Amino acid sequence: MSLLYTEQQEELIKLVKDFAENEIKPYVEELDKKGETPAKELFKGAFEMGLHMVEIPEEYGGAGLDFETTAMIFEELAKVDAGYAITLVSTFVALRSVILSGSPEQARLFADIIEPGNFAAFTLTEPNAGTDVAAMKGTAVKDGDEYILNASKTFITNGEIADVYVVFFKTDKNAGNKGISAFIVERDRPGVTVGVHEDKMGLRLSNTSDVFFQDVRVPADHLIGREGQGFKIALNTLNLSRAFVGTLAVGIMQRALDEAIAYAQEREQFGRPIMKFQSVQGLIADMAIKTEAARALVNNTMRLMDQGDLVKKEGAITKTFVSDACQEVTSKAVQVFGGYGVIKDYPVEKLMRDCKVFQIFEGTNEIQRSTIARELDKEYK
Amino acid sequence: MNIIVLIKQVPDTSEIKIDPETNRLMRAGVPSIINPVDKNAIEAAVQYKEEYGGKVVVLSMGPSQAKKALKESLALGADEAYLVTDRLFGGSDTYATSYILSEAIKKIGDFDIIFAGQQAIDGDTGQTGPSTAQHLGISRLTYVVDVSLEGEDTVIVKREVEEGIEVIASKKPLLCTVTKAINKPRYATIKSILAANQAEIGEITAADLGEIDKNKIGLKGSPTRVKKTFTPDISKNGEIIAADTAEEAAEKLVDKLLAKNVL
Predict the structure, then answer these.
(1) Fewest CB within a 10 Å sphere: which of A78, B184, B226, B263?
(2) What sequence ranges are listed for the domain Electron transfer flavoprotein alpha/beta-subunit N-terminal (chain B) (predicted)?
(3) What domains can you pick out in chain B, each with its CATH number?
């Protein structure tokens, strides 16, 4: 069972699958071991293929692909390495947030920076402002035709490697969520510095670092939307990015399932492949059930997004279900592998490490459940 | 000036399974692909165009399903693609196919160079490319691993032969059949696939080739007859002739061959 694909979707899936298998896969094991961000050279093929702007409208230099198909091809990339995939997803999601909430000129400014083959970053979290976004301390102060920006941001995907950021600051310290504003900040502005790449448990090919803004001056036209709209901009972007991290988790799950089946067919105990034992069959079947359900859920959310839906509830449902399911599926893959499952020479322990953060980033699953319940409460009134 | 590429759509042999009961190929559900080395031919043509200018025109003879392969060639950088197709062409062997292709090429117009893959993974004959050159009366160079232009009309070609690399100068126009060593085919891009799927693939039929000799096409025009196909028996194990010296081993071998009346 799988989704129903059009001929064009099949072609695009095959293109990305071939690229990921042949050009990326040979480097993943070593990069994961070292915890290094891949050199930009390893993204050259992805840039040429247009994967960093795949769902961006053609007027901004993207391929204009629908969200549904974009999710399908990123599942393929995530099967090989979700950290590599998220580097590209974070780039187009940052641009997408400018397209959603900024002016066409701002979108063009942002797109022109990343189109030749550069990364972007969505820069929201601060050390004491994670789930509680309104607790952020970073400030943007108007000074004539400019804003002066100050903030310390943390856990920023692509933080070290981005050439342009969407960054959130307080323009009104006393207005809570309504005091947050979003800005475009280019990497080469004086006062922008980056910290070191975090040594993470999983997604080790994805760059994560602090980003510091110290008296950074940007023209006033770098303000996205109006002052005070930042929180809404962040939420609208996160709804979308939650659906996309969902598709990456599906890629991890499918890989776990593929690996587990291949191993169970090969591994013999008591004179026959362990795939023939009912208890192992149960593990494999549960993995397949969760993977298929997760894929169908992601697909439905993507199709809603293609119709212009903001998927506030659906994005949260998708991200929460898929990331929880991913824990279960990758854990079961390790179980199928037995003792070999925890050995680094075998592929499944990495999948288990890679998937943990999916329950945490883009809004923890705990806050997602609050969002889902709050939306339902509103719906049923 | 036109740069022509000849491609063939073939079943993906890496996906074919053999029925263990009947020993027959199980073709059902096997995807069709561009013959792998033909992708190198497309890449060689696109690189030639990027270096020296021109227009890459891809031709394939086959049923309408082969349009898919032609669309893929557009996604890989070709400018135009045509399907040579007609019921009258059905059953053509390599001789008839190459004749039909040569007539189609004449219809396309003047050209500098034709690229084709060295052979197809289904028929494995390696005949259609060279034979097309024969029908056109132009030079044909096989097993090509490098092509460059010298001056206005001389093409320098490197061929991979058993003894090493042969360097040959040829006047344009010419036909090259290339090996996988010539290049690494580029990946299509998301945009190029989307654009290729919107493109119309033109058809060239027998009626479009007014001058074509009807006796040289289709089953009637094909001198090849397949009398029988079978799976060969697994050959018996060889025998190692052990001896202290090569001379001694040779003597033993000659004795055995004489005993079997081979010599």
Answers:
(1) B226
(2) 22-213
(3) 2-216 (3.40.50.620)
d(C-alpha A219, C-alpha A183), whole Å: 10
* DSSP notation for chain B: -EEEEE--EEE-GGG-EE-TTT--EE-TTPPEEE-HHHHHHHHHHHHHHHHH--EEEEEEES-GGGHHHHHHHHHTT-SEEEEE--GGGTT--HHHHHHHHHHHHHHH--EEEEEEES--TTT----HHHHHHHHHT-EEEEEEEEEEEETTTEEEEEEEETTEEEEEEEESSEEEEE-GGG--PPPP-HHHHHHHHHSPPEEE-GGG-TT--GGGSTTTT---------PPPPPPPP-----SSHHHHHHHHHHHHHHTT--
Chain A residues whose C-beta sits inside 8 Å of any chain B C-beta: 7-8, 11-12, 15, 18-19, 45, 48-51, 54, 63-65, 73
Above 80 in pLDDT, residue B66?
Answer: yes
Share of chain B above pLDDT 70, in %: 98
Task: Inform me whether the pLDDT recorded for B233 exceeds 80.
Answer: no
Task: Please report the pLDDT score of residue B24 as a whole number.
Answer: 67
* Neighboring chain B residues of A12 at a CB cutoff of 8 Å: 190, 193
| Mean pLDDT, rounded, for B76-91 | 95
The domains found in chain A, sorted by start residue, are 7-119 (1.10.540.10), 120-230 (2.40.110.10), 232-379 (1.20.140.10)
Helices A7-19 and A67-80 pack at an angle, to 10 degrees, of 30
Say if the Cβ atoms of B190 and A49 lie within 8 Å.
yes
Q: Do B189 and A54 touch (CB under 8 A)?
A: no
Residue A1 has pLDDT above 70, yes or no: no
Confidence of residue B23 (pLDDT cuts 50, 70, 90): low
